[in-house]
Specification:
The protein is low in regular secondary structure and about 230 residues long. About 15% of the residues lie in helices and about 10% in strands. The strands form 3 sheets. Strands 1-2 form a two-stranded antiparallel ribbon. α1 (about 10-20) packs antiparallel against α4 (about 220-225). The relative contact order is 0.21. The structure holds heme C (HEC) (4 copies). One heme C binds near residues 103 and 199.
């Protein structure tokens, strides 16, 4: 998540830091082979001690928590510290995470048990503890202020503030919308899912390409929306 503004201020920096990335061996195309398989058969350190179903940690076929996408995991009620959105000269706090981002954070902010699913009264016991805790690779916490904003409507033709330290601008919405991998949600909002695909980990390469990444390289994702100025 981090995209810390200080350490990762620009697309240029991201490209320099992460250039030359090649897909790693063992890239995973389906949920079952990824860290998001939290069942007993999962490949990660964090998994269930007994549960065999893969999808049920996030989805439920009936009585869903939210109808789309048949969400079956307890939702986080946390309030988050958020970064600023800078639209052409003004700065305002980004919205509180909603939509798919709130779904992700229901495990990744560390406030909700990983096995707290809607379909069962019990909390499914997990290896490595009930929740993600500080120090785990997947722990994000509730301070998102150093991260890329999410859950805001991506504007069309917006330019970044003149006083922005950034050396980049935004591409038109028509160009962003034409990309098959970097997707906005139905409300036109950028969510965690613009950069990460929770169902597939095809391109992971340690130190080069983050997990669940939607394209082969970091810069291809950034440059879907941003252009250098
Ligand atoms: C603009 C693209 C982008 C968005 C949006 C994004 N991430 Fe990430 N994420 C990254 C990158 C790049 C990394 C690799 C580590 C880094 O640079 O901090 C990463 C790393 C991670 C990690 C590994 C832990 C870490 O902090 O390094 C987790 C977990 C994660 N993201 C979850 C999320 C969640 C949950 C959201 C939504 C709240 C989200 N990401 C939104 C780009 C993004
Ligand atoms: C770790 C959590 C997680 C697991 C496990 C998971 N999903 Fe999902 N799934 C999500 C999220 C988050 C979304 C919402 C994506 C979005 O809004 O873009 C979603 C959306 C979907 C959708 C709606 C279409 C789409 O892609 O947006 C389908 C269908 C789906 N999942 C099927 C599955 C199946 C089948 C499995 C088991 C093999 C599974 N999922 C396992 C998190 C998960
Ligand atoms: C049901 C709980 C759950 C949900 C919902 C969930 N994740 Fe995860 N995710 C995990 C667990 C557990 C791990 C492994 C974390 C660890 O080992 O510390 C993980 C790992 C990751 C990683 C890799 C972290 C690393 O660098 O090792 C990323 C990135 C990530 N998730 C992003 C997302 C995004 C984006 C969403 C929403 C679209 C999401 N997750 C939804 C449980 C979840
Ligand atoms: C889905 C489109 C989209 C993607 C993908 C995306 N961004 Fe952004 N980004 C935006 C938008 C829109 C803003 C403007 C938000 C605002 O008003 O601050 C922004 C703002 C930023 C800012 C803050 C600029 C400033 O001066 O305030 C940085 C830094 C940034 N993005 C870096 C990245 C990097 C690095 C990546 C790739 C890992 C990336 N972005 C991927 C849409 C995107």
């Amino acid at each position: 998540m981090s995209l810390r503004r200080k350490s990762c201020l620009s697309v240029a920096a991201a490209i320099t830091a992460l250039a030359g990335a090649a897909p790693a061996a063992g890239q995973q195309e389906s949920v079952a082979g990824t860290l998001h398989n939290l069942s007993v058969s999962g490949p990660g350190e964090v998994r269930s001690l007994s549960e065999t179903e893969v999808c049920k940690f996030c989805h439920i076929p009936h009585n869903a928590e939210t109808p789309v996408p048949l969400w079956g995991h307890a939702l986080s009620q946390a309030q988050y510290e958020v970064p600023e959105i800078r639209t052409g000269g003004t700065a305002a706090p980004a919205p509180q995470p909603d939509g798919a981002s709130r779904l992700c954070l229901s495990c990744h902010d560390g406030t909700v048990a990983l096995g707290d699913i809607t379909s069962e009264p019990r909390i499914i016991p997990m290896t490595a503890g009930d929740r993600l805790t500080p120090g785990r690779p997947g722990y994000i916490g509730t301070d998102l202020s150093g991260s890329h904003p999410v859950s805001f409507v991506v504007p069309d033709g917006m330019t970044l503030a003149d006083d922005s330290e950034s050396d980049m601008t935004l591409r038109p919405l028509s160009a962003i919308g034409g990309d098959p991998d970097v997707v906005l949600d139905e409300a036109g909002k950028m969510q965690c899912t613009a950069c990460h695909d929770p169902h597939a980990d095809r391109y992971y390469s340690p130190g080069r390409v983050p997990r669940f990444w939607v394209k082969p390289t970091v810069e291809e994702v950034c440059l879907t929306c941003h252009a250098l100025r």
